[in-house]
Amino acid sequence: MPSHRSAPGENLRINGARLWNSLMEMAKIGPGVAGGNNRQTLTDEDSAGRHLFKDWCEAQGCSMGLDQMGNMFARREGTDPDALPVYVGSHLDTQPTGGKYDGVLGVLAGLEVIRTLNDLGIKTKHPIVVTNWTNEEGTRYAPPMLSSGVFGGQHTQDWAYALEDADGLKFGDELARIGWRGDEEVGARKMHAFFELHIEQGPILEAEGREIGVVTHGQGLSWTQITLTGRDSHTGSTPMPMRKDAGLGMARVLEKVNEIALSHAPHAVGAAGHIDVYPNSRNVIPGRVVFTVDLRSPDLAVIEDMEARLKAEARAIADDMGLEVAFEKVGGFDPVTFDEGCVSAVRDAAERLGYSHMNLISGAGHDACWINGVAPTAMIMCPCVDGLSHNEAEEISPEWAAAGTDVLFHAVVETAEIVG
Fold this sequence. Notes:
Layout: H1 16-27, H2 44-59, E1 63-66, E2 72-76, E3 86-90, H3 104-120, E4 123-124, E5 128-132, H4 146-151, H5 157-162, H6 171-177, E6 193-199, H7 204-208, E7 212-218, E8 220-229, E9 233-234, H8 246-262, E10 269-278, E11 284-285, E12 288-297, H9 300-321, E13 324-333, E14 336-337, H10 340-353, E15 357-362, H11 367-371, E16 377-382, H12 398-416, E17 418-419
Helix pairs in contact: 1-3, 1-12, 3-12, 8-9, 10-12
């Protein structure tokens, strides 16, 4: 656990107008069709965003490192050459219909920390490194948080390189094509601590009227793909008692998913977001459905209970309806408990600055969840309007962005230790 001392004075704040201008400039790269962004990973737009970030960092005197997964590391030197760096950052890639702030705020807030330190002539004992993690969103190449996962030892680099998008293009080939495959070994860097600022992607902070979310935990996740197989038949001429309706079976399973999640209220959640129905014809009873159930909780025992109950309920429904059922675990990670010292640094910064705050459990996965396994880590969240994210209508206020970055600045600089 890193020690925290020599906290910045409460009068020290970042330049909110400059931060907001940087967000708007980055948003010009890979514009969406409805006011947001389409800057998917390893596209030409992703490359252009990376170049702009690199130029901004080098203009502040940072050196830019690049590893073999394309992770970018902009380093501001500290006064102690042997001190491990304090890392800060998030991701620049977006969903196909993404907003202007998801991930991007965390990267450009890290840059604003560097700019503010330079403006004020503040030196730190530990170097500070601003990071852009490759392919956090996982839209072209599943799973999400891919490159931070390789960095944290969750995936192998060869496996990641071999992943293909919908057009059959491999991750490793596309990374080389856009010119952002580095030489540095992935995961070789050692960290004193890691901080990530992110929009909440949920409605709690706005509903509670709080400016800052102090993230104490990250929900664990379980993705189970279920295949129900019945028999295709005519919707009009097949008598009701003689049907093997896989679509109806799925509906009954999803009702159970809802019941199971509600039984672990308030933090557990469950739903199916990906559903394929075959043959998907208006006048054919579905003979097969494939759907993925997403279960989440900050408690591993709860996730395991929900998984077991899901399988038992789905088997019982299939047996009762004369359907075949198959299960495949297609993704997941255990719940995360963030570092107590780093979380305290975030909470202390919010209190010192006079920002209203509350503890939060992150409902989404973030790069910080994987980095937490290899370094002391914490997250900060700011509100977003109506909790909306992964949508071009995603919106935050300049004041929310500045408050989150102020807290980030204080937590990072305190951890990096002011010299003088």
